[in-house]
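Q: Structure tokens for this one, please.
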Amino acid sequence: MGEENINLEKLLNELESIVNKMESDDLNIEESLKSYEKGINLIKNAQNKLKKIEQKVEILSKDGSLKNFNDDE
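A: Here is the predicted structure, written as tokens:
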């Protein structure tokens, strides 16, 4: 399964796991770099998923009109 098919919660859990590994000092420099690169890709993927979710929220407003998620009513 590619990263693009993973749901947001799984992406964040995997990212948290990578951060924990990197903070543990158990990785050599090559493993750290590989983990860092994977983390960056996970962050980009999560940002894309969040953007899509935000767009859906804007579309699904109460009265059917397009509103920004942050608008106060």
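A few notes: The chain has one domain: 3-59. The mean pLDDT is 82.
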